[in-house]
Specification:
The chain is an all-alpha fold. It has 9 helices and no strands. α1 runs antiparallel to α2 (49-62), α2 (49-62) packs antiparallel against α3 and α6 (119-132) runs antiparallel to α7 (137-190). The protein is rod-shaped and about 170 Å long.
């Protein structure tokens, strides 16, 4: 069985991104001819992407491992602006062993990424396509478009980051200013009110000088010393020692009687 490895149409790839022309690219199966693919290619040629997709679905069911069938189905999905699904199908098509089909798959994959605003991925896909076919001017042109879009995107992101940083710094300054104001208000509340009447110190009782100190409390008078206390202690000690001598004891008692009858000594 012969295998047709030539494109079914003159246009093998999507046109340049900015042109947005109808997508007429299609590829015959690499494994064996398939009626569903032929009908799908005809519908896609007429701009009937929905009919083409329905026929390509039948072809995928019959030839699930054929990269060309996935390429065609990805073409129809791109025409319907279903870019995420187109990306998945075209990724399957990049597994082809055919360099021309592989290059076409990467080119269309780059277009799908571009339309999905995934410019970094589009750049990578276009570079893969150019590595397989360096002379492809459409891939070079779309690569330049993707690079320009990526620079614009990065610039916008940087501007947004700078804006967010400025807003954050401004908010921080406003918060600090408010904290300083609140602190000053708290300090002002703690200060005495200048318009409030001053409290006078308590007045002393009448007749007493405000600066005079209160009279000291009188200490209790000291009790007069009993000069006789040591003498009586001495006498008691002598009496204890004379208990054994009746004569001496009698003499001491007479002496004590004489002392008691004597008038008290003056203490003034």
């Amino acid at each position: 069985m012969s295998v047709n490895r030539r494109p079914a149409e003159a246009a093998l790839r999507f046109p340049a991104v900015l042109a947005l022309l109808p997508l007429l690219a299609a590829w015959n199966p690499l494994e064996r001819p398939n009626r569903a693919v032929t009908d799908g290619n005809a519908s896609l040629q007429k701009g009937k992407a929905e009919e083409a997709l329905a026929r390509y679905d039948q072809a995928v069911a019959a030839l699930p491992a054929d990269p060309a069938v996935h390429f065609n189905r990805g073409t129809a999905l791109f025409a319907l602006s279903r870019y995420d699904e187109a990306i998945a199908e075209l990724m399957r098509a990049t597994e082809s062993k055919s360099p021309s089909l592989k290059a076409a798959a990467f080119y269309n994959l780059g277009n799908s990424y571009f339309k999905a605003d995934r410019y970094a991925d589009a750049i990578a896909a276009y570079k893969h396509s150019l590595a397989l076919e360096p002379s492809d001017m459409r891939a070079k042109w779309n690569l330049e478009l993707a690079l320009q879009k990526k620079r614009e995107e990065d610039k916008k992101k940087q501007e947004q980051q700078d804006k967010d940083k400025d807003n954050k710094d401004k908010k921080k300054q406003d918060d600090q200013k408010k904290q300083d104001q609140d602190k000053k208000q708290d300090e002002k509340k703690q200060e005495p009110d200048a318009g409030a009447p001053k409290q006078e110190p308590p007045k002393p009782p009448q007749g007493q000088d405000a600066g005079a100190q209160p009279p000291p409390q009188e200490e209790p008078a000291a009790q007069p010393k009993d000069d006789k206390a040591p003498e009586m202690s001495e006498i008691d000690a002598v009496l204890d020692s004379l208990e054994r001598s009746p004569k001496d004891l009698e003499k001491m008692r007479a002496r004590l009687r004489a002392v008691r009858r004597a008038p008290p000594a003056k203490d003034w």
